[in-house]
Amino acid sequence: MLLVIAIALAAWLFYYLQRFIVYDKEGLHLDLSAPREELLRSDAPEATAQPAVPYVDVEIVVEQRDYSEIQTDAGNNLHSIHAVFVPAKDVTENTLKFYAGRMGDFDTLVLELKAEDGFLRWHSGVPVADSFAVNGTLELREMLEPLRAQGVYLVAQISALADGAMALRNAPIALKSAVTGQPYTDAAGQTYLDPYSESTRAYLLALLTELQNMGFDEVLLSGVTCPDSDALQFSQKMTQTPDSVTAVSSFALWLREQADTLGLPVSVCIGRAALTGEGDPAGQNAVLFFKAFDRVAVQTGFDSFQDDIAALESALGGQSDTRIVAVTENYTPELASYIVK
Fold first, then answer.
1. Given 37, 88, 250, 293, which is the most exposed site by the fewest CB atoms within 10 A?
2. pTM of the model
3. Please, what is the Cα angle at 257 between 243 and 201, to 5 degrees?
4. 201: helix, strand or coil
5. Please, is 63 exposed, middle or buried when counting C-beta atoms within 10 Å of its C-beta (0-12, 13-18, 19+)?
């Protein structure tokens, strides 16, 4: 009889205590202060007393990154250059033979090997160049030997992001319009490579490496620009579409890393709009460019020469015989480093 009573009492307690089981963040436990029905009543303090949540009006603001604290070794171990520029259409075997032994007061030869049309002047071993038919025919390595033997400093100029052929023929590598999904074309009809694309970066890195192996002492990049438009579509998924300055700055800092890895001086041409503030700077930040590139060159005229150089010196934070380069038409400026077209 006692055993039956004990079993019945245990069963009653088991079902009765179900009313006092509480589940909270600490898990399951018994709370004998009030049965579960009381805890779940709409007028029970535990069920109704919720802390007031204040309304907060949140505005997300994406600010331009501050590049002032970035430290690099760009511009180290350079010498001044007195260069003559050879445009892509004139880069031929006969032209190179002409300059061998006829440099005169010039000590540097700048060869434009990839203009904004995207076609290469030399026969490249980079597979992508062959795959999309942008390869050239010149076997430059042998043609450069007489110039190298005479101590001529050799600079290869290539257009980095402004690219007509590759952007149109290789869709994944192109900067696209967010409206049409097709390669973005600006008012001048120029197309561009996507600065965030891994394929873009791999292609340009392969070209830089090849040019270095061919015997070039330095690479001068033109076309490091991005259209200033809200209708751009980049290959990388981002919470907010970057503006042109952010896109170009990110690309420029990546180039700095590659230059350091290769041990190759990599310089850049900058537009006057980035210095004067007049017109579209095409994403170019002069102050950052001096941190990302070894030299900064600007196309300048006889009348604007002094102002342009002063603006470059202001961006650099002082004068430099090696890092500030004037690009002029048919005259030699009074500057330690220059390129004459």
1. 37
2. 0.80
3. 60
4. helix
5. exposed
| Highest mean pLDDT, choosing among 36-50, 88-102, 272-286 | 88-102
| 225 CB-near residues (< 8 Å, 6+ apart) | 161, 162, 192, 244, 248, 271, 282, 283, 284
Selection from 106, 114, 62, 67 nearest residue 88 by Cα: 114
- Decide if 149 contacts 209 (C-beta within 8 A): no
Collapsing DSSP to helix, strand or coil, 326 comes out as strand
Tokens of 132: 């999309």
pLDDT digits over 144-160, tens only? 999 999 999 999 999 99
Whole-angstrom distance, CA of residue 216 vs CA of residue 110? 10
C-alpha to C-alpha distance for 33 and 195, rounded to whole angstroms: 66
314 in Cβ contact with 324 (< 8 Å): no
Kindly compute the dihedral angle of the four CA atoms of residues 124, 130, 132, 133, in this order, to the nearest 10 degrees.
80
Find the angle CA(296)-CA(320)-CA(147) to the nearest 5 degrees: 65
Question: Residue 255 in contact with residue 221, Cβ under 8 Å?
Answer: yes
The DSSP call for residue 63 is P
pLDDT-derived band at 5, boundaries 50, 70, 90 = confident
Six-digit token pair at 82? Answer: 């007195």
Tell whether the model's pLDDT for residue 220 goes beyond 70.
yes
| Residue 19 pLDDT exceeds 70 | no
Q: 219, 160 in Cβ contact below 8 A?
A: no
